[in-house]
Design goal:
- The complex is a heterodimer.
- Chain A is an alpha/beta fold.
- Chain A is about 40% helix and about 15% strand.
- Chain A is built from 16 helices and 20 strands.
- In chain A, the strands form 5 sheets. In chain A, strands 14-15-16-13-12-17-18 form a 7-stranded mixed sheet, with helices on both faces. Chain A has a 6-stranded mixed sheet with strand order 9-8-7-10-11-19, with helices on both faces. A 3-stranded mixed sheet of chain A has the order 1-5-4, with helices on one face.
- In chain A, strand 7, helix 6 and strand 8 form a beta-alpha-beta unit.
- The longest helix of chain A has 22 residues.
- Chain B is globular, with a radius of gyration of 18 Å.
- The longest helix of chain B has 18 residues.
- In chain B, helix 1 packs across helix 9, helix 7 packs across helix 8 and helix 9 runs parallel beside helix 10.
- Classes of the chains: A alpha/beta, B alpha/beta.
- At the A-B interface, helix 10 of A face helix 1, helix 2, helix 9 and helix 10 of B.
């Protein structure tokens, strides 16, 4: 006797015929992007000493959205001086006053949510559904959350006297440009620090829009300074002698370089680095919901997510069923215009990342792995990648070992919980993992043994301002979010 | 193929709600909307199941079913008219040869509290009166007692009594309470011979909900994967407006695909929905909402 759930034929479903959705693009009429953005230093937008500008490109059509100032060492130095000057008065403000600014910023973000969501999708290629429903609401939530801590710091660390660290240099990535700015700025300001922030060069615009919002909120000059540029600008921040703390989110390779640079200095640091999350599905899992979880784990934000569930482990008895369902589910995903409200998978963030993802697809095929991609059409211009599933991959395969940071999922099977744990932990990374089972005790047994900073049970890629986030092993140092995130911005 | 109903297929209710919320973000515009509104209208089972139903009301409903908007022949007719057994002959007379089916509720609808023999007799009566489709209710009491074999045998017996008529099995999901029960009742009904599975009688709250319907659509999908047989789906009760109806169609499209987007495989059990669909179709043409008084109530 068989249960209906476990049986699997090769029958596939037709998701194309008869009825499709017409284009439903978000209206961009009320959004303005300036042709040129300067550096935000000491509360003002100022041209860079370098006199150089670089383009910010819409990855969905390869058109230049704006020219962004490139900050050199001199510019970074000015920004650090502005932050140092602002640190005294800002850190001496009563916490309740700092909280008021943060609450005001949070409310202004909510008021301008649609505008921020559209620009985030234009500049970064992520679907408007995600920027509208995930990114921007979380940005507001982080400012609200840390605003609440600003006047309660003594209660956050009972029996100790927390003091701000000083000037924080913050370097953020291109996958969640605005959200990463919020993760870093909100706790820093709540604790009384001042900030020099560098957005990723591919996605600077929403951070500069946030700077405009800081002006509207009346945030004192110099409390947050934004210097745009590429790796050299980031390096100038890391090397600047008057910076007290570095907070970096990005690749493990750059994180290692930063650690080397900082060794022997008194600078504190937190690093949020790469990942290769294991998503483990047991045969007693709710399978249809697990398939959704697998899709959300890897295809959320085109897979440009450090905690993406990029390694799928399925218990052998249900492997065929899960593959069957997953293939049909991939066929329903809509890839295309990030501004279309029905788009599930948007554009790959940049040419550079597109080339990297393509390289890994090639590696997978060269390694002789079975690949599945849905038969969907892609726009002719821009950077796109079909959702991709690699089947029967080996633990030694490069596509299993290395972070691809794209919509590419590799699947392996396992027989016992011990085997799943061993394979899941067999990676230099340790950022996230997921466990799918109907059995509560199994969840706790697994989470205790998985070497990952975040473990989700029967869900994946869930974020909350109150919850700490960070990595084991080469996935990072320190935590962001929640009370732990505040800890990274105080000294005793 | 035989199936084992003693095991329970786990369903994560939180995950189901999330999936439904995701479906509901789909934006249906322009021609896509026009197509879907007409498709939804063609899937409506115009229903009257009241103690005070009269031959006149049933005839009126049949006229509406054949020609939902007088003067507009391009507007599709509905899927079926659904009535109590004693009105089947009247409806059949009106609808004969029109392509609109006559559906009858049977098996001691809505409670199901009667002997199996009398249920079989009732079904045979409906079929002899001309019913094309039988909407039966399962004995929820026996199901909730864990007598799954009884439920299977009951559906199988009614299916046999149906002869050529199509069998829709009403699970009355509002009385099954858990999504696991909904899934199990769906699996049993399909394996026992249901042509359609249907959420509700409309007499119990809650009636059709999106999470329950999604679980049933996923059960239909698994049954198709396992057997190659396509089972139809009918959410009934509580679907009152076009926006909700389109959300159901999105769930069908993205769970089962194009082969289920027709009145042979999907129906709405509803009465007021038809008028709202008509209003929306006219609104798309004219750009303005007409008064509800332009649409006949029955």
């Amino acid at each position: 006797m068989k249960t209906l759930e476990k049986t699997s034929s090769g029958l596939r479903l037709d998701f194309n015929g008869i009825w499709g959705y017409d284009a439903a693009p978000e209206d961009t009429g009320h959004v303005t992007i300036a042709p040129k953005y300067e550096l935000f230093i000491g509360g003002k937008f100022v041209p860079p000493d370098t006199k150089r500008y670089f383009p910010s490109v819409n990855p969905a059509n390869e058109q230049t959205l704006s020219q962004i100032a490139e900050a050199g060492e001199e510019d970074v130095d000015k920004a650090v001086k502005a932050a140092r000057k602002a640190f005294g008065p800002w850190s001496k403000l009563p916490g309740s006053e700092r909280g008021k600014y943060l609450f005001r910023i949070a409310r202004l973000i909510q008021e301008r949510a649609r505008e921020f969501a559209i620009i985030e999708s234009l500049d970064g290629g992520k679907p408007i559904r995600e920027s509208r429903d995930v990114d921007v609401p979380l940005v507001a939530a982080h400012f609200f959350y840390y605003a609440g801590w600003a006047d309660k710091l003594e209660y956050a660390f009972p029996g100790r006297t927390p003091k701000p660290i000083g000037v924080a240099g913050q370097i953020i990535p291109w996958n969640f440009p605005l959200l990463m700015a919020a993760w870093k700025i909100a706790p820093a300001l709540a604790a009384g620090n001042t900030v020099v922030l560098k957005p990723a060069e591919a996605t600077s615009i929403t951070a500069l829009k946030l700077a405009e919002l800081f002006q509207d909120a009346g945030l004192p000059a110099g409390v947050v300074n934004i210097v745009t540029g590429a790796g050299a600008t980031g390096s100038a921040i890391v090397n600047h002698p008057d910076i007290d703390k570095i907070a970096f989110t990005g690749s493990t390779a750059v994180g290692k370089r930063i650690m080397k640079t900082l060794s022997g200095t008194t600078k504190k640091y937190t690093l949020e680095l790469g990942g290769k999350g294991a998503n483990i599905v047991f045969e007693d899992a709710p399978i249809d919901q697990a398939v959704e979880g697998i899709v959300n784990a890897i295809f959320f934000n085109q897979g440009h997510v450090c905690c993406a569930g990029s390694r799928l482990f399925v218990q052998e008895g249900i492997a065929d069923k899960v593959i069957h369902k997953l293939k049909d589910r991939l066929d329903t995903l809509i890839v295309g215009d990030p501004l279309d409200k029905n788009t599930d998978i948007g554009a790959i963030n940049s040419k550079m990342q597109y080339d990297k993802v393509q390289e890994y697809l090639k590696i997978g095929l060269e390694e002789g792995v079975e690949m599945y991609q849905p038969n969907c059409s892609l726009p002719s211009k821009g950077y796109w990648c079909k959702p991709t599933l690699f089947l029967n991959v080996a633990q030694s395969s490069r596509i299993v070992q290395e972070e691809i940071f794209g919509p590419v999922l590799s699947m392996q099977t396992f027989r016992t919980p011990e085997e799943a744990i061993e394979k899941a932990n067999n990676t230099p990374f340790g950022l996230s993992a997921g466990v799918w089972t109907d059995k509560g005790s199994k969840i706790f047994k697994m989470t205790g043994k998985l070497r990952a900073g975040v473990v989700w049970a029967n869900t994946f890629n869930k974020f909350d301002a109150t919850s700490p986030f960070g990595g084991y092993k080469e996935s990072g140092v320190g935590r962001e979010g929640g009370l732990h995130g505040l800890y990274s911005y105080v000294k005793f | 193929m035989s199936f084992d109903f003693s095991t329970t297929i786990p369903i994560d209710a939180v995950g189901v709600d999330e999936r439904v919320a995701r479906f509901n973000t789909r934006s249906i515009k322009k021609e896509s909307k026009n197509f879907a509104l007409r498709l939804a209208l063609s899937m409506v089972d115009l229903t009257t199941l009241e103690g005070m139903d009269s031959p006149g009301k049933v005839r009126q409903l049949c006229r509406k079913a054949m020609n939902p908007l007088p003067g507009r022949e391009d507007i599709p007719r509905v899927g079926a008219v659904c009535v109590y057994p004693n009105f089947v002959a009247i409806a059949k007379k009106e609808l004969l040869g029109t392509g609109v089916n006559v559906a009858s509720v049977a098996t001691a609808f809505p409670s199901g509290h009667a002997s199996l023999e009398s249920k079989i007799e009732e079904v045979k009566f409906c079929v002899s009166e001309g019913a094309d489709e039988i909407d039966m209710v399962i004995s929820r009491g026996r199901f909730l007692q864990g007598e799954y074999n009884y439920t299977f045998d009951e559906v199988a017996a009614i299916k046999e009594a149906c002869g050529p008529a199509h069998l829709k099995v009403i699970l009355e999901t509002g009385e099954l309470h858990t999504l696991e029960n909904v899934r199990k009742a769906s699996d049993i009904s399909m394996a026992a011979g249901a042509d359609f599975i249907k959420t509700s009688t409309g007499k119990v709250t809650p009636a059709a909900t999106q999470p329950v319907t999604l679980v049933m659509l996923e059960a239909i999908r698994d049954y198709y994967y396992a057997t190659g047989k396509r089972i139809g789906m009918k959410p009934a009760g509580g679907i009152r407006d076009s926006k909700t109806a389109l959300r159901y169609l999105v769930m069908v499209k993205e769970t089962l695909g194009a082969d289920w987007l027709n009145p042979h495989m999907f129906r709405f059990g509803a009465s007021v929905l038809a008028n709202d669909l008509l209003m929306q179709i006219i609104k798309l043409e004219t750009g303005v909402y007409g008064s509800a008084d332009y649409y006949s109530k029955d």
